[in-house]
Prior knowledge:
By secondary structure, this protein is of the alpha/beta class. The protein has helices spanning 2-14, 21-34, 36-48, 56-71, 139-142, 159-173, 209-220, 273-291, 309-312, 314-322, 352-361, 384-388, 401-406, 419-438, 450-459, 463-469, and strands at 75-84, 87-97, 107-109, 120-128, 146-149, 177-181, 204-207, 225-235, 239-248, 253-263, 299-306, 330-335, 343-347, 372-374, 393-398.
Amino acid sequence: MRHAVCAVALAFICSPARAGDDQVARIAGQALTQGGAMTFLERLADDVGGRVTGSPELHRAQDLVTASLKDAGLANVHAEDWTLLSRWRRGHARAHTVSAAPIALTVGGFGWIPSTPGPVEGPLVDLGMPDGKTLSVPAEKLKGAVVLADFKKMGDEPGFLIRARVSRQLAQAGAVALMVPSTKPDRMLDIGCFGNFPKAALPMLSVAADDGGMLRRLLARGGVRLALDVQNDLDSTPAQERNLIAEIPGREHPEEVILLGAHLDSWDPGQGAQDDGSGVAALVDAARILNALGERPARTIRFAFFAGEEQAILGSQAYVKAHAAELDRIKAVVVMDEGADEIKGFKAQGRKEVADSARRLFAPIAGLGGDDFSEEASFDQDHAFFMAAGVPALTLWTAEERYDVLHHAVTDTLDHVDAKHMARCTAVVATAAWLLANADAGALPKRLPADEAKALLARTGLAGAYEMASGGK
Ligand SMILES: [Zn+2]
């Protein structure tokens, strides 16, 4: 009896782990112990820094990624060009109150804004929080004015869509500039560009939250005049920009693809270390680790380093257009663009069946933290146009509190990337790619037909964002 019990116990203890777990353990182990992603990210952040789309800095970063992928022995490393309608380079943005004792304001220009015609002055008008339908101030009061306004999501409509619409209304009314109080603490500014590309309707500045509050207190006590000088280079000559692509060819179904995506462009005040240097670093290290396994995945794993994300997810949009005929064979897209932070899991972008299949497939890596699956959908990362085309899309879901403060701000630097989180995110992204690339065909979610993909956008409230990013307003 004792013998039998022991044999049963031994069989249980010694039974081999789930098939394939050896490779999963190797992939995760290398990501967690070798620090490859952090080593790459240090070079990207410190040798290149901020990388605005169309800039020489982004092109230096593209050279660095290309060299790293070639060094790691990836197959089919190449660039895919697309047309960038305009390029923009930050000059300066200055603002102060006009009074006996002028007060300088902490301001920064949003991306792709025009310049003021030299130094300008105007009365300050507070619009509060406009809904973008009607302006609460008569148009004649806006002519020549500097307008202060806050924006937030209203109903299904993201704040950036409302901001873009209001900026066009203000430009039409002859306003001088729009100032948006930052929602970040400690005088940090929040500059972005969604809704502005290829050229914003008028100069648009982020103003430190504290200064926004002060301007409103001053207004409550009487009229306020502001002096502004905003100068940037906005070049509307179309130029070539590019996505970088590399592959690990599949051994059984090389024509079927699991695509991992991150964006190499960033904003310029910081180093773009989290947004999206961390996603790029995770992909570069995942490519290195997966390619060195000695065993090829069943399907092809493709790595895409997009440009133009910050303008209007331009690079991934161009990719989806150029690869329209191939989308049936892109079995899943995984994007990392929320920073390397504590992992919650994955967002399945509005699709329950995608969440369900990811939950089953990713069971071996639940211990790394990626065990929660949200159906939340958004249109502000590079998965968006794949999702709109019905391709199953997952985005890595990490704790957003720190990232929301850092990204697009002067504080998006390497100092704010935690090496432990960087390694863990890399482990999850790399193993997720491996598991998807080796999954049985029946275990993968399907591509949605066009009508269902359209219904998905409507159901998730993303139809307006889709239209704006596609070029319609
Ligand atoms: Zn990003």
